[in-house]
Amino acid sequence: MGRLRRRYHHQIDALISAWTREQDKFEIMGRLQRSDIPAGALLNAKELVENPHLRSRGFFVAAESPDGSSYPMPGTPIMVNGQKRTRWRAAPSHGEHNAALLKEILGLNGEEIEWLLAAGALTGGAP
Questions:
Q1: Which residues, in sequence order, are bridge partners of residue 62?
Q2: Quick one: 74 and 113 in the same domain?
Q3: 79 and 58 housed in the same domain
Q4: Same domain for 52 and 75?
Q5: Counting Cβ atoms within 10 Å, is residue 49 exposed (0-12), middle (13-18) or buried (19+)?
Q6: Secondary-structure breakdown of the chain: helix, strand, coil percentages, each rounded to the nearest 5
Q7: Domain that holds residue 109
Q8: What is the C-alpha separation between 74 and 76, in angstroms, rounded?
Q9: Closest to 59 measured CA to CA, from 50, 67, 68
Q10: Which pLDDT value is given to residue 126?
Protein backbone atom coordinates (compact mmCIF):
# COMPACT_ATOMS: atom_id res chain seq x y z
CA MET A 1 0.00 0.00 0.00
CA GLY A 2 2.80 2.41 0.92
CA ARG A 3 4.48 1.90 -2.45
CA LEU A 4 1.30 2.78 -4.33
CA ARG A 5 0.72 5.79 -2.08
CA ARG A 6 4.23 7.06 -2.83
CA ARG A 7 3.80 6.37 -6.54
CA TYR A 8 0.59 8.44 -6.71
CA HIS A 9 1.35 11.01 -4.02
CA HIS A 10 1.09 13.96 -6.43
CA GLN A 11 -2.38 12.92 -7.53
CA ILE A 12 -3.44 12.20 -3.95
CA ASP A 13 -2.14 15.61 -2.82
CA ALA A 14 -4.03 17.31 -5.66
CA LEU A 15 -7.28 15.57 -4.70
CA ILE A 16 -6.88 16.44 -1.01
CA SER A 17 -6.03 20.06 -1.88
CA ALA A 18 -9.08 20.35 -4.12
CA TRP A 19 -11.30 18.85 -1.38
CA THR A 20 -9.97 21.10 1.40
CA ARG A 21 -9.63 24.35 -0.57
CA GLU A 22 -13.33 25.23 -0.44
CA GLN A 23 -13.95 24.20 3.19
CA ASP A 24 -13.36 25.69 6.60
CA LYS A 25 -10.28 24.15 8.21
CA PHE A 26 -12.00 23.80 11.58
CA GLU A 27 -14.94 21.97 10.02
CA ILE A 28 -12.56 19.62 8.20
CA MET A 29 -10.63 19.00 11.42
CA GLY A 30 -13.80 18.17 13.35
CA ARG A 31 -15.14 15.94 10.59
CA LEU A 32 -11.91 13.96 10.36
CA GLN A 33 -11.54 13.66 14.15
CA ARG A 34 -15.14 12.41 14.47
CA SER A 35 -14.14 9.69 11.99
CA ASP A 36 -11.16 8.75 14.22
CA ILE A 37 -8.67 10.29 11.79
CA PRO A 38 -6.01 12.35 13.58
CA ALA A 39 -6.20 15.89 12.21
CA GLY A 40 -5.45 19.42 13.30
CA ALA A 41 -5.99 22.78 11.65
CA LEU A 42 -2.92 24.86 10.94
CA LEU A 43 -3.48 28.08 12.89
CA ASN A 44 -2.00 31.51 12.30
CA ALA A 45 -0.83 33.64 15.24
CA LYS A 46 -4.18 35.42 15.66
CA GLU A 47 -6.10 32.13 15.62
CA LEU A 48 -3.72 30.67 18.20
CA VAL A 49 -4.17 33.56 20.62
CA GLU A 50 -7.96 33.49 20.16
CA ASN A 51 -8.28 29.68 20.33
CA PRO A 52 -10.89 28.82 23.00
CA HIS A 53 -9.18 25.54 23.96
CA LEU A 54 -5.78 27.17 24.47
CA ARG A 55 -7.39 30.04 26.41
CA SER A 56 -9.27 27.68 28.70
CA ARG A 57 -6.03 25.79 29.41
CA GLY A 58 -4.16 29.00 30.28
CA PHE A 59 -1.67 28.35 27.47
CA PHE A 60 -0.99 32.05 26.87
CA VAL A 61 0.30 34.36 29.59
CA ALA A 62 0.72 38.13 29.72
CA ALA A 63 4.37 39.08 29.28
CA GLU A 64 5.42 42.44 30.70
CA SER A 65 7.41 44.74 28.41
CA PRO A 66 9.97 47.21 29.79
CA ASP A 67 7.59 50.05 28.83
CA GLY A 68 4.90 48.62 31.11
CA SER A 69 2.67 47.20 28.39
CA SER A 70 1.92 43.51 28.09
CA TYR A 71 1.27 41.06 25.28
CA PRO A 72 0.30 37.39 25.09
CA MET A 73 2.98 34.75 24.72
CA PRO A 74 3.03 30.97 25.22
CA GLY A 75 3.60 30.03 28.84
CA THR A 76 5.00 26.76 30.09
CA PRO A 77 3.28 23.83 31.80
CA ILE A 78 6.35 23.24 33.97
CA MET A 79 5.82 23.58 37.70
CA VAL A 80 8.50 24.12 40.33
CA ASN A 81 7.67 22.93 43.84
CA GLY A 82 4.08 22.41 42.67
CA GLN A 83 3.74 26.06 41.59
CA LYS A 84 3.26 27.52 38.12
CA ARG A 85 5.17 30.63 37.19
CA THR A 86 3.03 33.71 37.84
CA ARG A 87 5.14 36.56 36.43
CA TRP A 88 6.38 36.74 32.87
CA ARG A 89 8.43 39.37 31.14
CA ALA A 90 9.16 40.11 27.51
CA ALA A 91 12.22 38.78 25.76
CA PRO A 92 15.18 41.16 25.88
CA SER A 93 15.26 43.85 23.23
CA HIS A 94 17.95 43.77 20.56
CA GLY A 95 21.31 44.38 22.24
CA GLU A 96 19.73 45.02 25.66
CA HIS A 97 22.30 42.97 27.60
CA ASN A 98 25.36 43.64 25.45
CA ALA A 99 27.17 45.84 27.95
CA ALA A 100 26.52 43.60 30.95
CA LEU A 101 27.66 40.48 29.09
CA LEU A 102 30.74 42.16 27.64
CA LYS A 103 31.73 43.40 31.10
CA GLU A 104 30.89 40.28 33.12
CA ILE A 105 31.91 37.54 30.70
CA LEU A 106 34.59 39.11 28.50
CA GLY A 107 35.89 41.55 31.08
CA LEU A 108 35.73 44.59 28.79
CA ASN A 109 35.63 48.06 30.30
CA GLY A 110 33.30 50.90 29.39
CA GLU A 111 35.80 52.51 27.02
CA GLU A 112 36.26 49.27 25.05
CA ILE A 113 32.50 48.80 24.80
CA GLU A 114 32.05 52.40 23.59
CA TRP A 115 34.72 51.77 20.95
CA LEU A 116 32.84 48.67 19.72
CA LEU A 117 29.60 50.66 19.56
CA ALA A 118 31.26 53.49 17.63
CA ALA A 119 32.88 50.98 15.24
CA GLY A 120 29.45 49.51 14.48
CA ALA A 121 30.32 46.10 15.91
CA LEU A 122 27.49 46.36 18.46
CA THR A 123 24.08 47.85 18.53
CA GLY A 124 22.37 49.53 21.45
CA GLY A 125 18.85 49.00 20.15
CA ALA A 126 16.74 47.54 17.43
CA PRO A 127 18.32 47.69 13.96
A1: 72
A2: no
A3: yes
A4: yes
A5: middle
A6: 45, 15, 45
A7: 93-127
A8: 7
A9: 50
A10: 54
